[in-house]
Specification:
The chain is mostly helical. The protein is built from 14 helices and 3 strands.
Length: about 300
């Protein structure tokens, strides 16, 4: 079976590094899959491979169970239905089974990968103390400290997805109103309140540092890299990892961890589930209810309070 025509150079590179040709050949020749099934599985695996490369993983051998779980949570954040996520997981399991048989990988990280119907709890979340240490990690003697502090404060303070975090425009942060305008999946707009810490950090960054970084290539985007261009997903991951390490946090922390922590801390403080649903941009409240793994009696007993960074 030959590779599909009209592929981009990026897709060709992903196919080589992540062994898509043997996978497609096995689907067609050994399992007798229909062309439609092969195409669907190909798209699923290409999406996974692209995500892995964004995380710095350049070949299938280096995919770990942890980063694979992050990919599944990423699919959930994209708004995929449970049936679509289950198909993705099925494609990944078949992919690794083929690579193991061909000797292209030595382990199968999909062995303990849960499907949506088995999800009961969140991935690891940070405590309020750990968040405080993380947000205090950027030191003012570092050139980009104002940007990094603002970025972390806003990502946690508004519960943003990483795509939302790096896609914010300067005009989307309404500091006087204490709001951030977010365009989520499907370009659906929502307004999320932010607290004093995030407002202050963003105000300092936009006043003191962003004008210095802007060299005409910022495209109106809020967070720029050192060359004055919009920050990429990979850049955001690297910044976060740097400060997780500096803060002495031993948990596996991703941008998604900050979003989960935001929601969990609000609910632990007594916030209304539907309000959290609106802030997260979840279309279905059932999606938000994954966060109610905390004890309900405990939720009833705590005083309603604002977000920890308000």
């Amino acid at each position: 079976m030959t590779a599909p025509s009209g592929m981009s150079a990026e897709e060709r590179e992903l196919r080589r590094g992540f062994h898509l040709q043997p996978f497609e050949d096995a689907l067609a020749l050994e399992e007798g899959a229909s062309p439609r099934t092969i195409e669907a599985y190909r798209r699923d695996v290409i999406r996974c491979a692209a995500f892995m490369r964004e995380q710095g993983v350049t070949n299938a051998r280096d995919i770990t169970p942890g980063v694979l779980r992050e990919f599944v949570y990423h699919l959930k954040d994209l708004g995929l239905a449970g049936s679509s996520i289950r198909r993705n997981i099925s494609a990944l399991r078949t992919w690794f089974r083929v690579m193991l048989a061909e000797g292209l990988v030595h382990t199968d990280p999909t062995e303990r990968l849960d499907s949506p119907q088995r999800w009961r709890t969140l991935p690891e979340v940070l405590s309020v103390d750990e968040v405080t240490r993380l947000l205090a990690a950027p030191q003012l003697d570092e050139r980009l400290a104002f940007r990094d502090r603002a970025m972390l404060e806003l990502a946690y303070g508004a519960g943003l997805r990483v795509s939302e975090w790096i896609g914010l425009a300067v005009k989307d942060v309404l500091l006087e109103d204490g709001l951030v305008r977010v365009f989520g999946k499907g370009s659906k707009e929502r307004l999320v309140p932010i607290g004093r810490s995030a407002i202050g950090a963003v105000a300092v960054y936009t006043r003191e540092l962003r004008p210095v970084l802007e060299k005409g290539q910022g495209k109106g985007i809020l967070f720029l890299n050192g060359q004055g261009k919009p920050l990429t997903r990979m850049g955001a991951w690297k910044i976060l990892r740097k400060y997780v390490e500096q803060a002495g946090i031993e948990k596996a922390v991703s941008p998604h961890t900050l979003r989960h922590s935001f929601a969990t801390h609000l609910l632990e403080g007594g916030a209304d589930l539907r309000a959290v649903q609106e802030m997260l941009g979840h279309a279905d409240i059932a999606t938000t209810q994954i966060y109610t793994h905390v004890d309900r009696e405990y939720l009833r007993s705590v005083h309603k309070q604002f977000h920890p960074r308000s």
